[in-house]
Design goal:
single chain; alpha+beta; 9-stranded mixed sheet; 3-stranded antiparallel sheet; 22 strands; 21% helix; globular
């Protein structure tokens, strides 16, 4: 069930017009030309290179093989990388330097994502962006990230006989919520829950303030007993949490707000949608001595870890 090699489509899955790479074989400028590629001026249908550094349109080094192919709208870039290297990079890209037990919790979820989705992007298991799991190549990964992957080797989070829906976010601001409070039509799954994450209440690292020049004062509906908003009504426009966060660039839906003649001031805490594993909460719990299994059991009620091949 677990792939030995993970295919990651780069640049969020969006085709690009030009890619510049370098490796031990030299430097390569790859441009899009109709149904073909121009590789240092030579016409090719596709081009692949191992253990390369991308210089343009981003700067990152990748283990495994980078495969470039001509699509209708540009160049498709896929990195085929051993699963251990992929997971270690996801740990580093998503959590940075964190306590080992928090990294191990993230490692189990990253592996569960691959089992749950399979080839999510058709010819690729995942993209490199928030849509899937952030993946920045080999640059950020260190021995602790690899240790987290190896010490959870083959472990996947299940509820019943199915891998869980993998959702995680940067910081809950003190309140975890179910998907129905984030997305219109969000599914009700038994392992997600709504309530307090007390470790994050006193954490001030995720405080924020945003001014939005709205002409009218919105009406906000909150999950009872919390500061977490799940709906915003602006005149005749009704927005669910994920929608109003994107429209007004709000880091989270945990906030207080004040209206004036010039606009609305939002003051809040947290970052992300608030469902599933809270990465900041996982770090704080690991610092208190929680194991990765205890962390996962807190955020995914009733789920269990199974080891698969």
């Amino acid at each position: 069930m677990l792939p030995e090699t993970v295919s990651v489509i780069l640049f969020g899955g969006n085709p690009v017009k030009e890619v510049v790479l370098s490796s031990k074989l030299g430097k390569f400028n790859v441009q899009h030309k109709g149904s073909n590629l121009l590789v240092n001026g030579e016409v090719r249908r596709s081009f692949s290179i191992s253990n390369a550094t991308v210089l343009k349109p981003i700067s990152a080094t990748f283990k495994g093989v980078i495969v470039l192919s001509a699509e209708k709208e540009g160049i498709s870039v896929i990195n085929r990388v051993p699963i251990e290297d992929y997971l270690a990079s996801v740990m580093a890209s998503e959590m940075g330097n964190a306590p080992l037990e928090a990294l191990k919790a993230q490692a189990v979820l990253a592996r569960t994502f691959l089992v749950r989705w399979g080839l999510r992007h058709g010819k690729a298991h995942a993209c490199d962006a928030d849509h899937c799991q952030v993946y920045k190549g080999s640059n950020p990964a260190n021995k602790e990230h690899y240790r987290a992957v190896r010490e959870t080797d083959g472990e996947v989070l299940f509820y019943g006989d199915k891998p869980v829906e993998v959702l995680f976010h940067s910081s809950c601001g003190g309140w975890i919520c179910e998907p129905k409070y984030v997305w219109k039509g969000g599914r009700e799954l038994p392992y997600f829950w709504t309530g307090e994450d007390t470790d994050c209440f006193s954490d001030h690292n995720s405080a924020w303030k945003v001014f939005v020049p709205l002409k009218v004062c919105p009406t906000v509906r909150r999950i009872p007993g919390t500061l977490r908003a799940y709906m915003m009504v602006i005149e005749n426009d009704t927005l669910y949490a994920n929608d109003f966060r994107k429209r007004f660039n709000l880091p989270s839906a945990v906030f207080a707000y004040w209206c004036s003649t010039s606009g609305v001031i939002f003051i809040g805490t947290g970052k992300g949608h608030g469902t599933g594993l809270c990465q900041r909460g996982a770090i704080l719990k690991a610092q208190k001595g929680w194991s990765y299994m205890e962390i996962l059991n807190f955020y995914y009620k009733g789920a269990r870890i199974l080891k698969i091949k």
